[in-house]
Design brief:
Structural class: alpha/beta
CATH architecture of the largest domain: Alpha-Beta Barrel
CATH superfamily of the largest domain: Glycoside hydrolase/deacetylase
Radius of gyration: 25 Å
Helix content: 40-55%
Number of domains: 2
Order of helices and strands: HHEEHEHEEHEHEHEHEEH
Shape: globular
Number of helices: 9
Bound molecules: zinc ion
Number of strands: 10
Oligomer: single chain
Largest sheet: 8 strands, parallel
Distance between the termini: 77 Å
CATH class of the largest domain: Alpha Beta
Amino acid sequence: MNPKRSLILTVCVTILIIISVTLKWPLNIDFGRHNQEAKPNVAITPILNPTSNPASPPPLPSNNLNEPKMSKFPEEGVPVLMYHSISTIPGNSLGVPVKQFTEEIEWLHQQNYHSLSLEEFNQALTNKAPIPEKPILLTFDDGYEDNYSSAWPILHQNGYRATFFIVTNSVGPGMMNWDQINDLASQGNSIGSHTVHHLDLSKLSSKQQENELSISKQELVNHLDISVQALCFPSGRYNKTTPKLMSKLGYKLGFTTHPGKVHLSDDLSTLKRIRISGGMPLASFQKLFP
Ligand SMILES: [Zn+2]
């Protein structure tokens, strides 16, 4: 090759390198920035179907929820949040709109709260097992279908898991089906009983109560192949017989609607929870976590 051709070739290669470098770097930087800046404004569409796009970025940057600092049970108590339907139900505060729910979960994530499994919560209460700092238990009553289609994608995206209390006779249309409940259980969520028929336990005979507790537990075991640790009282109602039946049937934790946080000294068969209502302003939600 003569010197002139060699020079031209060198110049061409250099130009190509410069073009490739100048093109590539800005592209990468913009892509990263785009993801970070877009995150807080992410609409519901990508959240609702997080697995549909394998190229989508991880939920939130700098997620250090995977390696929490372990700690003893906090003296100020552990908040157990109580949700029902994640939807807009006009005139009914049991429905928490998706937008409100998303803001609450994302805020908890930003504040570095760690969601517990029911088993972790139980071990912390019964055996004083260490739990992550800033622990929280997220519970959903009744088994609404939107728990699976709307709540779970948001929880999952924020690295959270939850406990779902199922009314076994209501599984099916309008509510979660067994496949959906099974899918939740297989992804690290906990499932508990909310009885068979969602009746007021305080008004049932001992035998009727026992049926509600034992049949629902057996149904969950049969369909999900899990160990059922917890019972959630329909409408928070129970009587003196209920805790006795719980221990007879192998339930370790009972959840009420009495307001407050759970402390280490509490009676495990009547645990308090914090109700989250539809329409609650984010500032009021934040005040629950001083
Ligand atoms: Zn209920």
